[in-house]
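Researcher: Can you fold this with NDP in place?
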Amino acid sequence: MSRLSGRTALVTGASRGIGRGIALRLGREGALVAVHYGSNETAAKETVADILAAGGRAFAVHAELGVPGDAAALWAAFDRAIEAYGERPGLDILVNNAGIALHGEIGTVTEADYDRLFAVNVRAPFFVVQQGLERLRDGGRVINVSSGVTRIALPVLSAYAMTKGALDTMTLTLAQQLGARGITVNAVAPGIIDTDMNSHLADPEQRAQAASLAVLGRVGEPADVAGLVAFVASDDAGWVTGQILDATGGSHLG
Ligand code: NDP
């Protein structure tokens, strides 16, 4: 597969989980992948090593998100890394994937938790896009990782769902703005995916319950989301923009 050869992609939060799955897939499709991570350098190096082992090209980029100056730090690290790699500056595909969850109905959410959640899940991607626009080449892609919880009411994820709703709105408005440059902006909305974020899936009973939510009858894997992201990143999806693409295996269809 080489649908994406000649392209450079940055995937935030690519050390683990869904982001790692996306990075592996984009690497297999021929993209040079910048594997961003927050604190887990070992895991990021593993993602890079796995891409290289599969014949791809990748390098790691470190920046903590959700703190003042995060976007500037991320892009400075990206610029340094791509120069060191000997590749031309800039990129074609930006995947805003890094995010954190917060469990708790509205009554349990503290102001500090709320601010942290919005800083990582909303503020960071907003400024990453803002400061990345000069680097993103015409005809490029912005792909935001949202969540099925924006259409399925889950009070236990109230504040988290709000952050993804904000990301969906950003997707729509950015698509309008960037269309003139041939840049598409879309979101993918996963359902329950087997990652560190869902440690409760280790319990067979909870796993079976989660699997029963999807009409396809199982819990999702990072590769399920990665396939959709790779499609959106490809030329085949060049006429799709401003969309929220469901990747929940058909959760709560009826
Ligand atoms: P994981 O917890 O498995 O991985 C999170 C990734 O984001 C890691 O690479 C982590 O880096 C990075 N990250 C988290 N916080 C920060 C931070 N403050 N600064 C920099 N990097 C950070 O999560 P998932 O893979 O499950 O989730 C990925 C995305 O998918 C999130 O946006 C999530 O909301 C969304 N999503 C997940 C679903 C699921 O069921 N898992 C369902 C729907 C949406 P490091 O390893 O360095 O800590």
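Model: Folded with NDP in place. The chain has one domain: 8-247.
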